[in-house]
Amino acid sequence: MENAFQDRHAVGVEDFVLLDDYKSREAFSDNLKKRFQEDLIYTYIRDVLISVNPYKQLPIYDAGHMERYRGQNFYELPPHVFAIADTAYRAVVQEYRDECILISGESGSGKTEASKKILQYIAQTSKRAGNVEEVKEKLLACNPLFEAFGNATTIRNDNSSRFGKYMDIEVGVEGFPIGGHVLDYLLERTRVVHQASGERNFHIFYQILQAEPAMLLKLKLTGKWKDYVYLSQGIMKNSKTSHEEGLEKKWKEEFRAVLSALDAVNFTDEERNDLFSSVAAIMHLGNVQFADNGDTVKLQSNNEASVAASLVGCSADDLIQSLTHRGVHARQDKVLAHLNKEQAVTSRDSLAKAIYAKTFEWLVKRVNAALASRETSRSAVIGLLDIYGFEVFEHNGFEQYCINYCNEKLQQLFIELTLRSEQEEYVVENIPWEPVEYFDNQTICTLIEAKPYGLIPLLDDECLRPGKATDMTYLEKIRERHPNHPHLVIRRDQRQFMIRHYAGDVIYNVDGFLDKNGELLHRDQRELLVRCNNMILKNAFTDQEATSLKRSTSTATQFKQSLAQLMVILKNKDPLYIRCIRPNDVKAARVFSDSVVGHQVKYLGLMENLRVRRAGYAYRRSYEPFLRRYKSLSPTTWPTYKGSAREGVVVLMKHLAIPHDEYAMGKTKVFVRLPRTIFSIEDAFQKRKHELATKIIALWKGRRQRIIYEGIRQNIIMAQAQVRGFLATLEAERRRKAVKTIRDFIRGFIQRHAELSDVNRKFWIQTRINFLQRLARDPSLPKSVRDKSWPKPPLSMAETSELLRKVHLKNRVLKYCKNCSAERKAAMEEKIRAEDLFKGKKASYPSSVPQMFLAVRVSPDPLSGSRLLNFEQTIRQPTEKTVYVTDCAKFDRRGFKQRDRTIALTTKNLYFLEPYKDTFVKKKVYRLQDVERMTVSSNKDGVVIVSVLDSEQSGKPAMKEDWVFHVASVIEFVVKFVGLVGNSHVLEIIPNGKRSLTANGSNGTFVEFGVGQTEAILPVKKVLQVVAAG
C-alpha cells in the first residue's frame, strides 16, 4: 500500500482511513472519482472493499492478476476483489476458520459480477490442490442458473438480482472446494406478473423462447416475447428496439449456458422438462383473459388455460374452475363461490407467482443437493452474501421496506463486528481502547421486528384479523401503537409512513402492504398443484399443507426468520465486506455522477464505517516491514539495524521527531493516528529514496565502469596476442605459398612449349587466364565488321582464340544486322548486286565499294531543286515513282557533240531530260521493257551505251536505237536499272575495242574503248574514242 502514497494527489488514496478530511462526504466522493477516472475501481476502508461499477470490461481479472494476488498480504498490493477472495481463502485453508464475504449495493452496482469474480478466483487458485474439477464446475454453474431464474432487466441494471443469495463454499483440508450450499431471500415474485415501465421479467422467460424449435413446439411457445402478456408489460409490444436482434442473440447464448449448467449439476431429462414446463405454463397463464358474465366471470378463450394445464399435468377444467371460483369450506361442506373479473385476475396472478416461487425454491434445493459435499474430513466454508443494498426510490413499497429492514440488520451486525475486531486488535497489541461513539440502530430494528407491537407483527395481525382489514387500518394501528417514536412519522392523509433509518429517512407508501404480505394461494389452487403431474409443483406442498385451512406464515415474518438465521450464520464467521456503488443512472462507462454516488455513500453507511475505523489509529503496520521500508530515514537504522525491529522503529520515530501522541507502539505493530503523519514519513522516504538512488547509481556506475574497463583491457591483451600469432601464421603460410607458386611458375615457363604435364599445367592455366582477362579488357578489339584484326594468342590458346575470334565476328555481324534500318538494308542489297555485276569485270568497281549509292546525284545547282520538283509534278506520271536521277553527258551519234542531259529512272520508264532554266525538257521517254541492253567497258571510264527499241514513231515498225552517255557513277546507274528490271542479262561488259552504234535502224558510227595515260573522250571522224586511265 505504501507504494501508492506518492501518487495520492493524482489518483487518491487506496484506503479511505488515510483520507485527511475523513468527515467530509465531498472528500470521500472526490477520492472515489479520482480513482474511477483512472480505472481504479477498488478502494479500501481498512478491510472493507469499495467497488465502483465501471460499466466496461477491464483487463484486471485474468489468470495473471489472480496469480499476482495469490498468497499476498492484504495491504501489499492495490485494492482488488481478488485480495478479499484470497484473504478469505487463505484463512479457510491455513486456519480452518469459517469466513464470509458480504456483498451489498444498489441494483446495477456490480454485486453479481463481484460474486462471480470471487468464485472464479477460488476455482483458479485451488486448481493445483486436487482433482475436483467437477465440484468447481458445479459451483460456477450456479451463476448462469440463478441469473436466469433470479435476475431481470431493470431501469438501472440489465442483470439485476431480484433476490438475496447466501452461498457457502465448502473447502476441504487439502485446500480445494468439496461442496456448497445456497440460501435465497425474498424473491421478487411480483415481477412475474407485473413489470415497471422500461423493465423486463426474469431472464429465463426470454431465454427459453430462443430454444430449439422442437422444444418450443413441445412447450407450445411461439418464440416471440411480445406474444405474452407477462413478458411485455414493461416494454410495450409496439415499441421497436434497435437492438432487438442483439438481444435475441444474447438470450440464445445465455440459454445455452443454462442448459450447460443443468448438465453440470446433473439434472435428469424429467427434471429439465418439468422445470421448463413450469416456466412455459406461467407464460401461457398470463395470456388467460376474463370477460364479465353478469355477476360471474368466464374465460374469453379456453385455449391458453388448456395449454397451461397440459404443461403442469392437470385437468383443464380444474384449472379453469380454480381461476373463476373459490371454494368456501364450512366444516365438512364446500361451496363454490363465483369470482368477479378483478378477483379472477388476482387469482390467476397469485397462481402464476406461486408456481414461479415454488419452482425457484425447488431449483435452489436441487442445486444444493448437487453441491452437497460427500467428504467426511474436516472442512471450513467461505460464505458469499449477495444481497440488495439500501433502497430509496420516489415510490417505496413493501419490497423496499423488507430490503431496508435487512440492511438495518446487516448494519447492526457490521458495526458490532467492526468495533469488536478493532477492540480485539487493540487488546492484543496492548493499545488503550478508546470508546467510539456511533449510532446504534437497535432501536430501529426493535421498532420493525419486536413483538407484539413491531411493524411486522402488527402487519401480520392485520392480515389475520377478521373483518375488513385494509392498508389504512394497518397504518392507523401503527399510529396508535407508536404515536411518539423518534424514528417513525405517520402521514395518514398521504397513506404513508416514514422511518428514520441509519442511512436516512425513507417514506413508504402503505398501499399493497397487506396483499403482498399475505400473498397466499387459496386451498383449491394448492390442491390443484398437489394433484398435477409436474413433480416440481406436485411436491410444492404437502398433503397437509394443501388441505389445511390454517394460514401459512406471512412473507414479512418468513423474511424476518430468514434474516435471524442469516445473522446467526454471519456471527459465527469472520466477515469481509464489499460495498458496491453505481456511478451513474445511465449505465455508461467513465461517467461519474456526484449526486448518484453521494446518495449511495450515505445509504450504504460508508461514512459511519469510516468514522468508526478512524476513531482509533488510521495506519498500522508490523514492525519488520515498517522498518524495512523506512530505515533509510535515520543514520542509526541505515543500512542495517542490529537490534530488534521494535527498537529500530522507536529510534526511527525519534529521529523523525514524530510527537508521542501521534503514534503508539504495540506488541507487533506500530500504530499511527493521523494520515498526514504517515504521509509525511512517506514523503520523506520518497525524497530520501532519490538521494540514495543517486548515490547508489553513482557507485554502481563507477564500479561497473571499472569492471568493464578491466574486462576490456584483459580482453584486448588476449586478443592482441591471439591476433599477432594468427597474423604471423598467416604470413608464414602466405610466404610458403608464394615461394611454391613462383617456383612452379618458373618451371612451367621453362617448359611452356612442351607437352602438357603436371610441371607446366599451372603455367598453362595461368597463361590462359591472363590471355582471357586481357582479351576481356582489350579496348582495341575490332569494332567494325570489316576489321579483321585480332590479338595474337599464346600457343596454348591458339585454337581457343580462333573460336573466340569467330564468335566475336558473329556477334558484331549480329549487332550490325540488328542495328541496320530498312533503307540501309536496301542500300546494302544494291551493293551486293553491284558486286555480282561488276566485281572482277570492271576496273572502276573497287573505287565504288566504299561509297553508298544515292537516289539523286545531280549537281549542286540552285535550280536543281526546282527542276526536280518540276519533273515530279509535270513530267512523271502519277502511277509511277522516281527511283533514281543523275546528271550525265550525251554524245550525238553524228559528230558526237556533247550535250548536258539528266537521266531519270522511275518504276516504269527511263527519261532523258534536258535542263532548261528551272525546269526539265523531256527529250525521250522509254519504257523499261523497251531497254534491250546497257553496254559498258571493263575499264575505269563512265561511258554507257543504252540500246532501246524505239516505238514512238506511229505507223512505222520499232527500230533499235543506241544512246551514248557519260555518267560519273555509271556503276550506280546500271545497278539501279538492273534492280528495277530484275534481269542482270541486260548488262553487257565489253573489253577494249570498237562497238558499233545503231541509229534509225542502221550502223555508221562506232565507240572505241581503250586505256591510256589519262582519261579522255575524243570524237575522231565516225569513231568516239573512250580512253580510261590505265
Folded structure, characterized:
This protein is of the alpha+beta class. Strands 20, 21, 22, 23, 24, 25, 26, 27 and 28 form a nine-stranded mixed sheet that branches. A hairpin with a 4-residue loop joins strand 6 (164-172) and strand 7. The longest helix is centred in the last third of the chain and has 76 residues, at 675-750. The termini are far apart. Residues 842-1030 form the TH1 domain.
Mean pLDDT: 85
Percent of residues in β-strands: 15-25%
The number of helical segments is: 33
The largest β sheet comes out as: 9 strands, mixed
Fraction of helical residues: 40-55%
Strand element count: 32
Low-confidence stretches: none
Radius of gyration, CA atoms, in whole angstroms:
61 Å
CATH hierarchy: architecture of the domain at 846-1029: Roll
Family: Belongs to the TRAFAC class myosin-kinesin ATPase superfamily. Myosin family.
Keywords: Actin-binding, ATP-binding, Motor protein, Myosin, Nucleotide-binding, Repeat
Region (Actin-binding): 563-585
InterPro entries: Kinesin_motor_dom_sf, Myosin_head_motor_dom-like, Myosin_TH1, P-loop_NTPase
